[in-house]
Amino acid sequence: MSLLLSHLIIYLLLLTMVTGEILRPRFYSETCPEAESIVRDEMKKAMIREARSVASVMRLQFHDCFVNGCDGSVLLDDTPNMLGEKLSLSNINSLRSFEVVDDIKEALEKACPSTVSCADIVIMASRDAVALTGGPDWEVKLGRKDSLTASQKDSDDIMPSPRANATFLIDLFERFDLSVRDMVALSGSHSIGKGRCFSIMFRLYNQSGSGKPDPALEPVYRKKLNQLCPLGGDENVTGDLDATPRVFDNQYFKDLVSGRGFLNSDQTLYTSRETRGYVKRFSEDQGEFFRAFEEGMVKLGDLQSGRPGEVRLNCRVVNTRHNDVLLGDS
């Protein structure tokens, strides 16, 4: 073996320990060659049952990857010894469609037992959610391990609020080596799906403590939201995140230009000078938005904690042998 090859092997081993698993396309080509087809088929079934579910699954990638990397920790249920991420401030009564991931995992376990990680399922399913609703399709890198734990506190400390402004979002994304362009493009995930009245009540009735609505809201759109989300009404009622909530397109950005962003964290992308240019560009060129979104999703999927992991048999619980270790049993 040459000295150069020896040094390369040592470098790759060190890289794996520092940054996590070495991810690559077609990771399961030999161990589970039908993995990606199985995931897409299950996503198609989920979309037929409930169109909104695919958008909900796509959100899981953001909420998983930002908290200690893409490790499936967001899928874990709470235990007597662990407060997980499902009840964190940004996730409680918000994240949903975990049963879709369960169905995908069940189908994969039948085809290839103990092979495909839940973390990789989230990555594949998120890509498929976009492709199946008219958006871009891209090759995903796979080979992640599933986290042995989850942390509600870590999620609370990192995940942004619907009230977040562009400056906060830019700073947050920069912490993960994601550019302003990445951040604006990834916000375009709100091209599909719905949001709760809970997330916009302050915009409608008390923006920045003023006792008045957000002046950036287009008046006709604001009236529509007032009817959907009246003061004292059910704040779990949902509204469309853009004018074409079942189609992944650049309508989201067109809506922002027109003052029809649902969330404050959406509309701020147009009112802020730092991000307005990207919003306008994506509103005018869907192809450029799609390319930027693909790039951002791949970069987001590369985030890893470097912590030890496993391939869970059930995405909601850590495998028994690791539970025993975590609880101090021998």
Question: What this model shows, in words?
Answer:
With 330 residues, the protein is mainly alpha-helical. 50% of the residues lie in helices and 4% in strands. The protein has 15 helices and six strands. The chain has helices at 3-19, 35-49, 52-65, 98-111, 118-132, 152-158, 166-174, 180-187, 201-205, 219-228, 251-257, 264-271, 273-284, 286-301, 320-326, and strands spanning 24-25, 141-142, 146-147, 194-196, 238-240, 309-310. The strands form three sheets. It has a two-stranded antiparallel ribbon with strand order 1-2. The chain has a two-stranded antiparallel sheet with strand order 3-6. Strands 4-5 form a two-stranded antiparallel ribbon. Helix 3 (52-65) crosses helix 5 (118-132). It is globular and about 55 Å long. Mean pLDDT is 91; it is low at 1-19 and 322-330.
Short characterization:
The chain is mainly alpha-helical and 330 residues long. The protein has 15 helices and six strands.
Q: Could you spell the SSE succession in H and E letters?
A: HEHHHHEEHHHEHHEHHHHEH
- Derived from helix and strand composition plus strand pairing, the structural class reads mainly alpha
Instruction: Order the strands across the largest sheet as they lie in space.
Output: 1-2
| Helical residues, percent | 40-55%
Strand percentage lies at: under 5%
Number of helices: 15
Instruction: Work out the number of β strands.
Output: 6
Low-confidence stretches: 1-19, 322-330
Distance between the ends? 41 Å
Shape call: globular
- The chain-level mean pLDDT equals 91
- The radius of gyration is 21 Å
